[in-house]
Every structure is written in structure tokens, then in C-alpha cells.
Hints:
mainly alpha, Endonuclease III, domain 1, 0% strand
Amino acid sequence: MKNMKRCGWADSDPLLRKYHDTEWGVPVHDDRKLFEFLILEGAQAGLNWLIILKKRKSFRTAFDRFDPTKIAEYSRADTRRLLSNPGIIRNRLKVAAAVTNARGVLSLQREFGGFDDYIWQFVGGKPIKHRYRFMSSIPNKSKESDAMSEDLTRRGFKFVGSTI
């Protein structure tokens, strides 16, 4: 990793560096991991990513390691449990979105054979590789992210804006 060029946003904290060096921009083809990112990105809305990384372990425990089958069955008691957990983002709408989105992921798995198959269709099954010279040149959304967001929203998903 000595020769790795790191984005400036990753320099301020060891968690950000580790995330940058091992996860950011790395293609993922695992339904549960993709669902985890969807939930964490939704929880991050209005906050910064470092807050989420610091709470990630607690999120994994609180949300049954992001098993959409389990989360889809959460009850009001589960919601109350989550809302009283200081280890996660305790926002009622974001917690409810996790349950709604788990149900949506199960539906997409039935329809497409996997959440992975659904997500990757928006980029033709391959990562898009850009070569921006400056961080300020990187757009925060794209036509692909707009299309994905619009389709997820149409299917009832919550906290799935184009930048998420």
C-alpha cells in the first residue's frame, strides 16, 4: 500500500484510511454486503461517513449482520430496541427505512435472482472507471445513480437518493 495514491478525504482518520484503502471503489458482488452499504449510506444521510464507520460494528450487531430476511421481519419491539441503541443512528425514519428496504431487497432477489444482479444492471455489469485529475471534478451523482435511485424509489425503497 506504500505506493497507493489516497484521496485527501481519507487522510484525517485511520478508519477513513482503512475504508479508502480496502473498500472504497472496490466492486462488490455480495447481496448482504450491498444491503449493508445501502443501509449505512441511508443512515449517513445528513451526517458524515466517519460517524457511520465509527458505529459500523454496532450497526452490524443491532441489524443482525445485515441479514435482509431477519430485518424484513422486524416488529415494533425491534424498532423500539433499535431506537434505544446509542451505538447506531437513532432516527425513526432511517430505522423504518432499513426494514422497508430489507423487504424490498427480498423482492428484488426474487425478481432478479439477486440484489447484486439488480444493482449491477445499471452499469451493464461492469465498474465504470473514471480518471479525474481533481477531487472537485468528481460529480456526486451520475445518470446511472439517478436511474438506480428513481427505480428503487418507484419500488418503495427509502433513503435511496442519487448520491446514496
